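Good morning C.,

I know you're traveling, so I'll keep this short. The sequence:
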Amino acid sequence: MNTKPKLIVICGPTATGKTSKSIELAKELGGEIISADSRQVYKYLDIGTAKITTEEMEGIPHHMIDIIEPSKIFSVAQYKKMTQDIISDIYSRNKTPILVGGTGMYIDAVIYNRTFPEVQANMELRAELEKITTDELVSRLTELDPIRLENIDQSNRVRLMRAIEIATELGSVPLQESTASPYDLKIHYMDLPDDELKQKIHNRNVHRLENGLIEEIETLNGEHNLTWERMNELGLEYRYVSQFVQGEIETKEKLIGILDPKTWQYVKRQRTWFKKYLNEKL
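The tokens, ready to paste straight into the viewer:
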């Protein structure tokens, strides 16, 4: 008899319907939903992250959403600890935890109970790295740890610098081997054909721009004092729409022409990550 706590995981690329499917399953199974999205943990990042609304939750409890100010850095280790505590609490109340999202590193950390290198901040190195271009950061990481480079957003300076920091200290960013999960897992992978998903991504990008994303980013910068540098670190919509707001991208047409392919690159990274434990499609 399997005595491990049951954990349902719904994963897959962005814009594939994970949210609606999770609500269906939660209603059917008496479940509670835990977000596995590295940006939905932040307050105020609503439109750009397609954050679920209270109405859309349909009374289903949701966890790991809006838990930290966007100016703060939230680590994978923090996510793992908080999420595993939440899973234990849900299980203790005879409910079914459902982990839902597209951030593969977050999901891996939880379901495989992985540990992460304890490398202290190297302020001298960080000051040096701050002065070089993103392309130079990529080159530096290529020399130190080309394997880590394959699975990182090469536009994200914060992640590039942290990877360089760890690799400089340890020789490389340690690969986390799969281990036996502490949970009785049921993993559902969701995806769509390329043409259909590309069209959904395009439609969603256009809809967001016409329905508040620009205003959300202006508010983040104005009322919440979120710097343009931090917006760039948050990636995708926040990086490129903030460039539009600052006048660095001239038109919405050019902005869409950047957002669509950049989002597709992200989809391909998500697919690469999840294919290693894909076992069932819904």
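Safe travels,
E.
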